Amino acid sequence: MAAIDLFAPYTLGLLKLRNRFVRSATTSAWADGHGIVGPEIVGRYGELARGEVGLIIKGHLYVDPKGKAHAGMAGASDDAHISGLAQVTGAVHGSGGAIVAQINHGGWEAEAGERMGPSAVETQEWRARAMDAGEIREAVGAFGEAARRCLDAGFDGVQIHAAHGYLMSQFLSRLANRRTDEWGGSLTNRARLLREVYLEIRSYLGDDVPVGVKLNCDDFSEDGFTVEEAAEVAGELARFGADFIEVSGGGFGEQARCRQRARANDPALAEVSFAGHCARIRQATGGTPLALVDGFSNLAAMQAVVQSGLADLVSLSRPLIRERDLVTKLAAGQAEATCTRCDGCHDCFGVAMLRCTLDEPL
Ligand SMILES: Cc1cc2nc3c(=O)[nH]c(=O)nc-3n(C[C@H](O)[C@H](O)[C@H](O)COP(=O)(O)O)c2cc1C
């Protein structure tokens, strides 16, 4: 089989991408108290587009202030958010890039909102209440409205965040979702929220605008969401016409361990998490474009994943925090991201928020 050129254009539905590199959604804490983005965020997205990333996924946007995951998170819950977001899409399009909005509801993890989820839960630090049926319906509607605002702001599409323990993955996981009504129990019921959200968004955006999903492939938790269940959900999304699925994973608060447990056996893919999971999801989704995220730093591994047919798109977050022009550098012959020095400290997700503490001052 001829070598697939990662740097050659790729078509996602009707959207033409410059190449097969995706910037996985990477949030900052830089929006103002009302969730409105400012020049720092606009500037960051312009840099990524100038760095020739094929598809940029904007860091998660809350669909409802109740689902705001953290302070400084940007929103798409109000028409007042549109003009700032339009500057982001303008900066990307002005440099020939494509950008999709990731929309999210934090559920239990809504640190800056109102903690609620499929079932009540209490930890040492916080407690969350179970959502009633009206609140679930409200969340579905909020996703649709947020998607419409994203389109108004000039985004090329939308990605539903259904990974990393936020509301959508809470509903999917039997560990988190202990409901006995139509939103819990069987996988069909646990996946109802994601299904309804997907269909609601389609009803706003129509069939031509790309709608994708970032899906947990495994909770890595006893009695949690499994790869077999993920494959079933992904298969259904593919049948519904989802334009792309980004395969990610992780449990409830044990990300680092998950990554270790999900390493591929193939030495060529040793740095990549979830490769085996992605293969299973591929079986269930056929030709639906898949992006794989987590752990990439070497071009050889990225090439191997695409060449073997595991995924169509290579998705990167932390490597592009340090090197916004990484894709340009890889095209010019650099073999790996300089973040091979990344020791997974995750300060870029904590104290530093979107800055790498290896070389950038806090
Ligand atoms: C600073 C930071 C912010 C992130 N924000 C988001 C986000 O908004 N949405 C999301 O789905 N994942 C988010 N992630 C997770 C990444 O998209 C990605 O799944 C994870 O970092 C693994 O990919 P990597 O090894 O290329 O960094 C974030 C990660 C970091 C480090």
Describe the structure.
The protein has one domain: Aldolase class I (TIM Barrel, Alpha-Beta Barrel), CATH 3.20.20. The protein is 33% helix and 17% strand. It has 362 residues and is an alpha/beta fold. The strands form three sheets. Strands 3-4-6-10-11-12-13-14 form an eight-stranded parallel β-barrel, surrounded by seven helices. The chain has a three-stranded mixed beta sheet with strand order 7-9-8. Strands 1-2 form a two-stranded antiparallel sheet. The protein is built from twelve helices and 14 strands. The N and C termini lie far apart (47 Å). The mean pLDDT is 92. Helix 1 runs parallel beside helix 2 and helix 7 crosses helix 9. It binds flavin mononucleotide (FMN). Flavin mononucleotide (FMN) binds at residues 24-27, 59-60, 102, 161, 163-164, 214, 248, 293-296, 316-319, 348-349, 354.
Topology overview:
Blueprint: E1 10-12, E2 15-17, E3 21-26, H1 39-50, E4 55-62, E5 74-75, H2 82-94, E6 98-104, E7 116-117, E8 121-122, E9 127-130, H3 133-152, E10 157-162, H4 167-172, H5 187-190, H6 192-205, E11 211-216, H7 227-240, E12 244-248, H8 255-261, H9 275-285, E13 290-293, H10 299-307, E14 313-316, H11 318-322, H12 326-331
Helix pairs in contact: 1-2, 3-6, 7-9
This protein binds flavin mononucleotide.
